[in-house]
Amino acid sequence: MKQIAADIGGTFTDLTGVDGDGVFSTAKTLTTPHDHAVGVLDGLDKLGAHLPDTELFLHGSTIAINTVLQRVGANTALITTEGFRDVYEIGRGNRSDPYNLFFGKPTPLVRRRLRREVRERVLADGSVRTPLDIAAATALIEELRGTGVESVAVCLLHSYANPEHELALGRLFAELWPEAYVTLSHEIMREYREYERTSTTVLNAYVGPVVSRYLDSLTDRLAQRGFRGRLLIMQSNGGIMSVETARRSPVRMMESGPVAGVIGAAALADALGRPRLIPFDMGGTTAKTSLVKDGEVDISPGYYIGGYATGHPMSLPVVNIVEVGSGGGSIAWVDAAGALKVGPRSAGASPGPACYGLGGDRPTVTDANLILGRLGASRFLGGEMQLDRAAAEAAIREHVAEPLGLDVVAAARGIVTIADAQMSLAVRAVSVEKGEDPREFALVATGGAGPLHAVSIARELSIGTVVVPVLPGQFSAKGMLSSQVRHDLTRTQLAAFEPATIEHYAVTLKSLAAEAAARLRADVGEPAETPAVHHFLELRYRGQEFTIAVPVPEDGLSTATYAAVRADFDAMHDRLYGHQAPEEAVEAIGVRTVISLPLGGSAGEMPAAAPAAGPAVPVDTRPVVLHGGGPDPVLCPVYDREALGPGHRITGPAVVQEATSSVVFYEGDVLTVAPDQSLVIAVGSPA
C-alpha cells in the first residue's frame, strides 16, 4: 500500500490504506491500552499491509490527552523566574460556575515542591534587567536530578520577547543532565499571558516522556517490518508533523485523533456541494462535533484540557471540537437519587460493552442499541465479532431496569434517549451557541456509532440533511489522507497599530515566514511545490482584552496596505460583535504565520462507482424500536450498504448496515446514494 493512516481511539484502532490506483482497504481492531502499538500492528496484519512498499504512514491518537486526563504523565518539575513559582497554581480569577459551592481550580500537574525559581529577569520589551545566575541554576539542576524528576518545564518571565536565559538553561541541562526531558517555553509558543504559557509548557513536559516512548516503540516496530517511508503525526490544528517535531512538542497532538475526522468532513464539502457542515463523530468512548463553514475548519487559538471550569489551558491552535462522554461504550448507571445517567465512564476496549462477550458486565449505549434492534448481532465488525444479546439484556436488567422498575426495552430506550440528548447539546454548542443556525448545515455522521444516532439528533435540532460518507467507521483514519503538513507560529509584540509601526511588523512576519519554512523542510524535506503561507495581525481596540486575527493582504504589510487592514479589522469586529469604532485607536498584540503544504498523492477521494442498475433490495427484516415512536418495535427492512449504488433511493423506516457501522432512519426520511457513494438522508419532520 502506498499510504496508510492509523487512528487510535478509546475502544477501537482504525486503519485505512490506499494503493497507487486509489483503491482503499480498511481494518478495525480493539485498542490495546496496555501497549497502543500492539493495536496498530494488529490492524496492519488485518489490512495485509506490505510496509516496504509504503511511502507514507499517518498516525493520530488520544495518547497525549488521555495521559493528562488520567494524570499518568511524567514526574515533572517547573523552573520559573524568582518570585513567580505560584503563577501556575494561582491561574485566573475566573469562576465559570459561581453558584457551585464545591467549585475548585484545576489541580496543578506539578507539585509545589517541584516548582523552583532561578534568579533572572527579562522585561516585556526583551531587555535584560537581571542576568541569569548560572551558579545557582547549576546547583538547582544538580538538586533536581536526585528528586526522581523525569521531565522539566522551563518558563521564564517574558521569554517570548527574549529567550536568552531559557536557552542558557537548556544548554546547562544538555551538559549536566542530558537524559532529562526538557521543554523550553519559547520553543512551544512565543506569546504573552504568563499563566497560559506556563500551563502549555507544563503540559508538554508532562506528556513528553510518555509520548516519546510510544513514538520510539512504534517507529522501531514499523522499521522491523520493513517500513522505510515517512511517519507523520496528526496535530490538533488539523495539520501533520514529523515524528521528531512530535517528540519535542507532543502538546501539539492533544486532539490528534478527533480532528482528523473534521478534516475529512471539510474535504467532502466540495464533493457534496455543501460548504456548511457539522461533522459528528461518535466512537466507542466519546462523541465529538465541530463546524465547517465555506469548506473551512473552525480553528480556535487554544482550549482547556478537561473543560473550562477545572481544565488546564493550552494556548496552541486547535480545531474547535466539543466532546461529550457519550460513546457506544459509555456506561449507563443510576445515581443515588434514582436518576438514569449515561457516561462519562466508559467500558473502553477492555472489557468493553457487555454484548462484546469479553467480560464486561455494565450496560452501555451499544448494549441498548442491540436490544432495540438497531444493531445486528451477527453483522458487527463485518461478522468478525458476534454480539451477545443475552449478556446485554442481563446487564441492562440488573443495573438499570430493575433499579428503575422498568422492563429491559424501556430501559434501553431511556439509555439511548439520554445519550441522544447529551449529543444534541454538543451540536448546539458548536452551532447555536456560536450564533449559527444548525438548520443551515448538513450533519456528517461518522464513527462506528455516529450513523446510528445522527438522524435522531438531526430531528431534535431540525437539521434537514444527514450525510453518511463512505467508510464512516474508519473516517478519522481516512481523513488523515486529506491533511496537510502545517505549522502555526506566533510572536507577541505589543504596539500601537498605525502607519509608523507597519514596517516593524512586516520585518517580524518575514522572520516568522523563514522560521515556518525551516520547520516545514525539517518535516518533509525540500518541498516540490511552493507552500501556502498566510499571515495575520492580532488587533484590538485599545483597552480591550482579546484580539481578532486579521489577514494580511497578499500584497504584504506596508503603509500602502495599512488602511485596508484597519478597515478589515473594523468590519470583522462589527460582524463578530455587532458594532465597530473606526475613530478609536487600535493596537497590535502580535503576529501569526500559518504555513501549509499538501502531501500530494491520494487526498482521500473515493473512486467513481457505476450508477445503480435497479431498485435497492433488502437482505433482511428485523424489529426495531425507533426514536420518538412507541414502545413497540417496527418491522424494518435491512439493506447492505455494499449492495447500494449511486441513485438508489430508500424511504424510511429502514436500516442500512455495513461492516463497521449501521444507519437508522425513520418514517418520513428518504435516503439517496450520492455519486461519491455517500448516503444522503433528507430528514422528515419529527414523529
Structure description:
There is one protein chain. By secondary structure, the protein is an alpha/beta fold. It is 30% helix and 26% strand. The strands form nine sheets. Strands 3-2-1-4-11-12-26-29-27-28 form a ten-stranded mixed β-sheet, sandwiched between helices. An eight-stranded mixed β-sheet has the order 21-14-13-24-25-36-35-32, sandwiched between helices. A four-stranded parallel β-sheet has the order 6-5-9-10, with helices on both faces.
What is the radius of gyration computed over CA atoms, rounded to a whole number of angstroms? 26 Å
Mean pLDDT: 90
Q: What percentage of amino acids are in beta strands?
A: 25-35%
How many beta-strand runs? 36
Describe the global form. Answer: globular
Class inferred from helices and paired strands? alpha/beta
Q: Report strand order across the widest sheet.
A: 3-2-1-4-11-12-26-29-27-28
Which ranges are low-confidence, i.e. pLDDT below 50, for 5 or more consecutive residues?
A: none
Annotation field: number of helices: 16
Distance between the termini: 47 Å
Helix content: 25-40%
Q: Major sheet, described briefly?
A: 10 strands, mixed
Q: Helices and strands in order, then pairings?
A:
Elements: E1 3-8, E2 12-18, E3 24-30, H1 36-47, E4 56-61, H2 63-69, E5 76-81, H3 87-90, E6 115-118, E7 121-122, E8 128-130, H4 134-145, E9 151-155, H5 164-176, E10 181-184, H6 185-188, H7 194-224, E11 230-234, E12 239-242, H8 243-248, H9 258-272, E13 277-282, E14 287-289, E15 292-293, E16 296-297, E17 299-300, E18 303-305, E19 312-314, E20 318-319, E21 322-324, E22 330-334, E23 340-346, H10 365-371, H11 389-404, H12 408-430, E24 442-446, H13 450-461, E25 465-468, H14 475-480, E26 484-496, H15 502-524, E27 532-541, E28 548-551, H16 562-577, E29 586-598, E30 620-624, E31 634-640, E32 649-651, E33 654-658, E34 661-665, E35 670-673, E36 679-682
Parallel strand pairs: 1-4, 4-11, 5-6, 5-9, 9-10, 12-26, 13-24, 24-25, 31-33
Antiparallel strand pairs: 1-2, 2-3, 7-8, 11-12, 13-14, 14-21, 15-16, 17-20, 18-19, 22-23, 25-36, 26-29, 27-28, 27-29, 30-31, 32-35, 33-34, 35-36
Helix pairs in contact: 2-7, 4-5, 10-11, 10-12, 11-12, 12-13
